[in-house]
């Protein structure tokens, strides 16, 4: 069976390179790259090596799953529930089966293996059959010879419901009737650190809410399933964890894992949402039943209904401090709305509870954290889960504390910053670099952007819309600060491991690693590592699939550490194979030889040859693993060494607010970040910018509304995203390159912590401009309106 793409372009593995520019060039208008981003040779670690598929992606010729085609192709459609909570009393597929062109209709009765699935907890049915627990839950799927036929057939399936009252308030879920056999409480984490009787001289309290953010993937969610002659199936999907997807699918299909293969297609960006299995399971089942390739391309509405979202969260806080503004105790209650199923809620709750006090030294911390099931849309892994919600709350508390003490907001933060050697509230010692004070000082001391000068052009930049929707005299400027932190890699005992193979032949190197390129730049980094270690400039990273050893999910920047570490170790093993005969011939150790720019030289300069001459037609290869040190699950008091590493960020937001209309414009975000080591300057700047922009979206506009559990206007008109016109000016004022000694290259993940920190900084700036409390994200216009006295 031949699989082709429907584009005229090349594949991502062999795409044309983009034109390289200066490493310090700005990645977006107004972005000032720091001095660390210097020009250099176009290979190896520390330079802005361009992505091989950049040109194809920008020209629209790069093949994604929606572009794939196969001989004898059928099209799939999924029937979803219109109700958030209902009992299914009857499913009749007769009319759909009788339609011309329909090849198969499947329901729960056609699942030959496990009827339940899930990433962490197998609590979600492949197809609902007794109860519907959320709006858009799959009930049946159809395969037909035309996409319109498939959609019409799905609509023709008769489902009779007994509509039930949905539980949509997470606070009411505790006392509500169980929505699931496992109950409504997914996890409760009580954190106890210090003396509960301690009381500060100054106490501030706050209630905060964070809305439901959708990851809104930029490409169509799609997939192709192809049956195999051995009775198995191949799934071509934009998976970010192909081995986990394969194992889950094989269990549902009732097949051995070696009869299910997942081939990763081009991933058009991912922030955890592509961990959902709602596409590959119906596709695989339809392909197995029909014996034909089956393709599915989701509409934007189906995307909103089908994948997981950020957890809506309710947070209650009480901060205690002494008269000088030093924190004494933090008390918090954190309630995560998991929606209908568990998904990644346990992980999100652990992060929220552990980081509830933020990157501050607090001797006494007491937190109660819960994740509960409701009939709201499912929540799951979205970049910075858990950490983002608590950041918005604890930074709101720091602003309240500053106001009550009469201190500058930056000053009260500076008096409490966390550092290396301090303790987290979980009892874990911060052993990695934690330059939080240095980051805060950098953004605090950075020059502020100029005020509008009053000319016609500057008026267009004021909030309230173009052409003078607002009055310039009603605009107030505010400056706000926020400090954020996230964990790197998995937590609480997650076995983080990745495997890579590096092969060199004929002056060319190849890397085999199942780490998925999801936009984080791993394939470019892998090329740079091999170039650096072996001096071979021509490096190719092979596409990912489940025939390769597992590398784990593309989340939390883990592939920079774990998979990058595996590639580095394999490359070093090949380097030893390459240099060992040469060292023996000249009576010296391998350590006395160095490789740079394709040349091998000895420490004394006597020996000088090239890598190509030394290879002399030989093929060398090695396979290696990288597995960071293990972590512990939080105990019954929320204590334990649960995290491998941490990374930090400081953001200063400058906003203009029209206090009559409540309109907000983010003028500038100044950021200082703890990056460990800059591996690819341009790529790093782009990741920070993207994270900040996503954070601005949550701060001002992104809120997926689901009144009574029903998603309203599931499209990009009803769910606005930041465009280029909404993206703020970004100024990177400092990148702290203090290497983490336990991480390969000393580098840290960079994209999640700006997402976590930006919404809190924007909220702080709006508070400064208006004097309003601003305790809800996204910030609604009425929260920024100041009524005349």
Characterize the structure shown:
With 789 residues, the protein is α+β, with helices and mostly antiparallel strands.
What's the gyration radius in Å? 27 Å
Number of helices: 16
Specify the overall morphology.
globular
Q: Could you say which structural class the secondary elements and strand pairing correspond to?
A: alpha+beta
Record the strand order, biggest sheet: 5-9-3-16-13-14-15
- How much of the residues is beta strand, in percent? 25-35%
Percentage of residues assigned to helices: 10-25%
Mean pLDDT: 89
**E-strand count:** 31
Main beta sheet: 7 strands, mixed
Q: Which regions contain 5 or more consecutive residues with pLDDT less than 50? A: 4-33, 35-40
Q: What separation lies between the terminal Cα atoms?
A: 74 Å
InterPro entries: Ald_Oxase/Xan_DH_a/b, Ald_Oxase/Xan_DH_a/b_sf, Ald_Oxase/xanthine_DH-like, AldOxase/xan_DH_MoCoBD1, AldOxase/xan_DH_MoCoBD2, AldOxase/xan_DH_Mopterin-bd_sf
Region (Disordered): 1-35
Pfam families: Ald_Xan_dh_C (PF01315), MoCoBD_1 (PF02738), MoCoBD_2 (PF20256)
Protein name: Xanthine dehydrogenase family protein molybdopterin-binding subunit
Describe what is shown at a glance.
The chain has 789 residues and is α+β, with helices and mostly antiparallel strands.
Question: Which labels suit this protein?
Answer:
alpha+beta; 7-stranded mixed beta sheet; AldOxase/xan_DH_MoCoBD1; globular; Ald_Oxase/xanthine_DH-like; 16 helices; Xanthine dehydrogenase family protein molybdopterin-binding subunit; 789 residues; 6-stranded mixed beta sheet
